[in-house]
Design a protein that fits this description.
Number of helices: 20
Helix content: 55-70%
CATH superfamily of the largest domain: MetI-like
Structural class: alpha+beta
Largest sheet: 8 strands, antiparallel
């Protein structure tokens, strides 16, 4: 006899087991979503943190006198004459006026390295836009060099200042000077230098031993001689460093391989080159002129932890940049150049405007080619084409084309559009045609799926009241399938916007300094797109291109988010339920 209680218990046990399985499945799904969101937040957060320096810029404002004879050589105020003006020399003189004590040619080159000469073109454009500025003195604002900008943002070296609180007297206000202290205040610096020299000597000796070992095991005579020479040079250098590190040496010389020490006193800055007299006297050169030689205890020792040999900005440029900031000539603000300029060899002037316009023009060509052709193809295959081997063959090949690597389409564009038809390289027209070929399978497949989703009863009702096949498709099926078609098309276009490989094949990797015009003529002008711009900046030699690469990635992600948001909006706007 079957026990009803046992059956009920078994059923409840199976239900409990099923509920537990469903709970585990739900938990795994939630964990997967949380993991995906965490990785996304980590990725975007990492990119955003790297891009922060790109959104800030240190700008230098100088009073520039636009002398008529130098700005307008012909004296007629014509555009041709204004274009021949000596704008860069005017900027150099304005900067030199801030440091009149600098006369050495080498130091002047360092000083003028605080900005790029390309800023003179911006000054020229300002004068061309307003010729009435000729003969006047204006405040011209321009970005400082990328190396100085990175330093001012704290990305080049760390620094610290110590106030000894003891009397010190400078021997002069410019040139080579000595700083006399009434105590051995520089002794800690001497001890640190000797310790570092001893460490460097040990590293050189270890290197020499490795070279000697490799020389003993070398198979060829040339390799043995070369390694032996390297070992001898390392031991010679180590011996000289040992000699400098000896406590009995009368002086200690600063070298570019050691942290830099500077002295701030009497409104100026002195670079320490040598410390003598048991740490009581420092010898060096004046980087920023001292106001007087008055002795006092209001002075500090300024240390730059990263040696000068390991950074692109010199000690003198750091001193001048700090002085300009203290004088109010340098201010930090939002980097509008990133969005208003096209690409540039100088990171501080490089922007994404040209790439954004190039991407817009390229995507317009892609959209006007891929969407109409793709939707028309999908409508024919789904609504009108007979079901035979030919249409089956076409459908299979369309599905296969959706899986073809994108670079193959780039090769096709290079062979057909450029080599055969002679269309211009690096043009949005060619780029859009290549991306249209790549996007067509996606548009066709998504459009067919949207058409299939329309209930057959809609078609049957329209045909039943006397509508033709074309009227049924145009007036009933397509409006109902529009949300799915628009969604698939926009997602396909968003995917095309992020493609790089096919565009590299047609030459859109070229450096383009000017943004293309937003007109029909701009379709054949040289241009680049955002993915290629990111690729170019990521390969840049200057360190300042690193944050700009991250910033460009954020801009591209923002464009992709906008595209997908439009797809979601259109889908909800036109969606109909039946």
């Amino acid at each position: 006899m079957i026990n009803r209680t046992d059956i009920q218990a078994a059923v409840e046990a199976r239900l409990a087991k099923r509920y537990r399985a469903e709970g585990r499945f739900r938990m795994f799904g939630i964990l997967a979503i949380m993991a995906a969101i965490s990785v996304l937040i980590l990725l975007i957060g990492s990119i955003a943190s790297q891009s922060i320096p790109a959104f800030r810029v240190n700008e230098l404002t100088l009073p520039v006198t636009l002398e008529t004879a130098r700005v307008d050589p012909a004296g007629d105020g014509s555009e041709a004459s204004l274009r021949r003006g000596a704008y860069n020399s005017l900027l150099q003189e304005a900067l030199r006026d801030e440091f009149p004590e600098i006369e050495d040619r080498g130091q002047l080159r360092e000083l003028f390295g605080l900005y790029t000469p390309l800023n003179s073109a911006r000054l020229q454009n300002q004068v061309l836009a307003n010729p009435g500025l000729v003969g006047r003195t204006i405040d011209f604002t321009f970005p400082i060099s990328d190396d100085a900008d990175l330093y001012l943002q704290g990305l080049t070296t760390t620094s610290g200042e110590v106030a000894p609180g003891l009397m010190a007297t400078p021997s002069g206000t410019s040139g080579e000077v000595r700083i006399f202290a009434n105590s051995n205040v520089f002794s800690p610096i001497v001890s640190d230098i000797r310790e570092r020299l001893a460490t460097q000597a040990e590293e050189l000796e270890d290197r020499a031993e490795r070279y000697e070992t490799r020389a003993a095991n070398a198979a060829g005579e040339d390799a043995r001689v070369s390694l032996t020479r390297e070992a001898e040079q390392a031991r010679t250098r180590a011996a000289s460093l040992r000699a400098l590190a000896e406590p009995g040496s009368p002086s200690v010389d600063m070298s570019p391989e050691l942290p830099s020490r500077l002295i701030r006193m009497n409104g100026g800055i002195v670079h320490i080159d040598r410390i003598t007299d048991s740490g009581r006297t420092a010898e060096g050169r004046v980087l920023v002129a001292l106001e007087s030689t008055t002795p006092g205890d209001d002075w500090t020792i300024w240390t730059l932890d990263t040696p000068q040999a390991e950074r692109r900005i010199t000690d003198a440029q750091i001193a001048w940049a700090e002085t300009l900031r203290e004088r109010g000539r340098l201010e930090t603000g939002f980097n509008t150049y990133l969005f208003t300029n096209a690409d540039s060899r100088e990171p501080e002037l490089a922007g994404v405007l040209g790439a954004v316009i190039g991407s817009a023009l390229t995507m317009l060509v892609t959209m006007f080619l891929a969407v109409p052709i793709g939707v028309a193809t999908a409508v024919y295959l789904e609504e009108f084409a007979p079901k035979n081997r030919l249409t089956g063959f076409i459908e299979v090949n369309i599905n296969n084309l959706a899986a073809v690597p994108s670079i193959v389409f780039g090769l096709l564009g290079l062979a057909v559009f450029i080599s055969l038809f002679g269309l211009p390289r690096s043009a949005p027209l060619v780029g859009g045609m290549v991306l249209a070929l790549m996007t067509l399978p996606t548009v066709i497949i998504s459009s067919r799926a949207a058409l299939k989703a329309v209930p057959p009863s809609i078609r049957e009702a329209a045909l039943g009241v006397g509508a033709s096949r074309l009227q049924t498709v145009v007036h009933h099926v397509l409006p109902l399938a529009a949300p799915g078609i628009l969604t698939g098309s926009i997602i396909g276009l968003a995917q095309a916007m992020g493609e790089t490989a096919p565009l590299l094949m047609i030459g859109m990797v070229a450096f383009v300094a000017d943004a293309p015009s937003l007109s029909v003529g701009g379709l054949t002008e040289p241009a680049t797109v955002m993915p290629v711009q990111i690729f170019l900046w990521s390969d840049g030699a200057e360190r300042a291109f690193e944050p700009r690469t991250a910033a460009a990635i954020l801009v591209l992600l923002a464009l992709m988010i906008v595209f997908n948001a439009v797809a979601v909006f259109l889908r909800r706007r036109f969606e109909r339920r039946w």
